[in-house]
């Protein structure tokens, strides 16, 4: 089963303690190395297939540093730096940003956590555990749940503590911070999560303004997204369902509604199986594509796993859709079949 510890301090394997405050501060090195072989059909207009190494199939390959200093009274100063890497060729995931995944500093307190810098969007934070594929390369990201990127720069984010099963997040990004174009690239989002025993549900609203690059200014255009999702644990199985409405005139994704459902089953302590079905009903004549995805995971240890994906995209009259959300070469209007076999290791 995919371990939620990937997003937490539990990934730590190396902790460097301050000599002057051994118990009060720490810096932890962590990472995820994920690489596999992918076979993908219809990757160009000639309907050719490709076979090759693909990095970050279940989780983005990355390494990072996370730090905490105890300030007393339940308060701590925190920071996080995280860089995505392409294991297939050793390159940075982003050519323009070294710490492209996370780069923030903040305060953790009994009243919640406030952070500033580059951070995950709330739609990512509060959907990753409501997606049977856990935001893999074949997942809700393929359908465009989160357009462009899961991170946002120049952001302020607040995460509340959990009270009576409820927790929430709020975020605002100052966007491009362009003089005379202060709305360009701005982002705001709100999310609420509720958990009771084996059931949990969440709602998220977010909006993004267009960018500014001389002479094009789309900052008056807006992308609006509302999503609701739920999951229910039944024994060693978990059932998932969700809904996304996309609206506005920015068109980061087609205007319309997305629906998904799926399940995860822990067959044995070492074997996990996932299945997901996604449907996008557009309102702009861009079709109604469907995604069908299966995944199997075999845990060699607590940190190392083998995995296999099988996916099929039925474009159903759609355009600009792909099975692998990182596939930028596909014409986007052809059905696709994909298979991935790989290994991941966390430290």
UniProtKB/TrEMBL annotation:
<keyword id="KW-0406">Ion transport</keyword>
<dbReference type="GO" id="GO:0046930">
    <property type="term" value="C:pore complex"/>
</dbReference>
<dbReference type="InterPro" id="IPR023614">
    <property type="entry name" value="Porin_dom_sf"/>
</dbReference>
<dbReference type="Pfam" id="PF13609">
    <property type="entry name" value="Porin_4"/>
</dbReference>
<keyword id="KW-1134">Transmembrane beta strand</keyword>
<keyword id="KW-0812">Transmembrane</keyword>
<dbReference type="GO" id="GO:0015288">
    <property type="term" value="F:porin activity"/>
</dbReference>
<dbReference type="InterPro" id="IPR033900">
    <property type="entry name" value="Gram_neg_porin_domain"/>
</dbReference>
<dbReference type="GO" id="GO:0006811">
    <property type="term" value="P:monoatomic ion transport"/>
</dbReference>
<feature type="domain" description="Porin">
    <location>
        <begin position="10"/>
        <end position="317"/>
    </location>
</feature>
<keyword id="KW-0998">Cell outer membrane</keyword>
<dbReference type="InterPro" id="IPR050298">
    <property type="entry name" value="Gram-neg_bact_OMP"/>
</dbReference>
<keyword id="KW-0472">Membrane</keyword>
<keyword id="KW-0626">Porin</keyword>
<comment type="subunit">
    <text>Homotrimer.</text>
</comment>
<keyword id="KW-0813">Transport</keyword>
<keyword id="KW-0732">Signal</keyword>
<dbReference type="InterPro" id="IPR002299">
    <property type="entry name" value="Porin_Neis"/>
</dbReference>
<feature type="signal peptide">
    <location>
        <begin position="1"/>
        <end position="23"/>
    </location>
</feature>
<protein>
    <submittedName>
        <fullName>Outer membrane protein (Porin)</fullName>
    </submittedName>
</protein>
<dbReference type="GO" id="GO:0009279">
    <property type="term" value="C:cell outer membrane"/>
</dbReference>
């Amino acid at each position: 089963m995919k371990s939620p510890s990937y997003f937490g301090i539990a990934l730590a394997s190396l902790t460097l303690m301050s000599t002057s405050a051994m118990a009060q501060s720490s810096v932890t090195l962590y990472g995820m190395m994920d690489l596999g072989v992918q076979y993908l059909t219809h990757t160009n207009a000639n309907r050719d297939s490709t076979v090759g190494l693909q990095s970050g199939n279940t989780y983005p390959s990355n390494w990072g540093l996370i730090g905490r200093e105890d300030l007393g009274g339940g308060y701590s100063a925190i920071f996080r730096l995280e860089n995505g890497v392409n294991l297939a060729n050793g390159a940075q995931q982003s050519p323009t940003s070294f710490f492209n995944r996370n780069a923030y500093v903040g305060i953790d307190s009994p009243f919640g956590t406030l952070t500033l810098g580059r951070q995950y969007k709330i739609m990512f934070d509060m959907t990753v555990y409501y997606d049977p594929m856990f935001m893999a390369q074949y997942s809700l990201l393929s359908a465009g749940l989160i357009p462009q990127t899961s991170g946002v720069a120049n952001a302020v984010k607040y995460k509340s503590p959990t009270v009576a099963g409820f927790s929430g997040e709020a975020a605002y990004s100052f966007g491009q911070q362009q003089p005379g174009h202060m709305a360009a690239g701005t982002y705001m989002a709100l999310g609420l999560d509720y958990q009771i025993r084996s059931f949990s549900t969440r709602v998220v609203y977010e909006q993004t303004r267009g960018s500014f690059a001389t002479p094009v200014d789309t900052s008056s255009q807006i992308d609006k997204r509302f999503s609701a999702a739920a999951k229910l644990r039944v024994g060693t199985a978990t059932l998932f369902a969700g809904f996304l409405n996309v609206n506005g005139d920015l068109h980061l994704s087609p205007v319309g509604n997305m629906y998904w459902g799926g399940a995860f089953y822990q067959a044995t302590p070492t074997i996990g199986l996932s299945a997901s079905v996604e449907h996008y009903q557009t309102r702009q004549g861009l079709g109604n594509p469907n995604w069908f995805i299966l995944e199997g995971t075999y845990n060699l240890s607590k940190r190392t796993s083998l995995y296999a994906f099988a996916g099929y995209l039925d474009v159903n009259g759609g355009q600009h859709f792909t099975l692998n959300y990182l596939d930028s070469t596909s014409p986007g209007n052809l059905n696709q079949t994909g298979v991935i076999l790989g290994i991941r290791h966390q430290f």
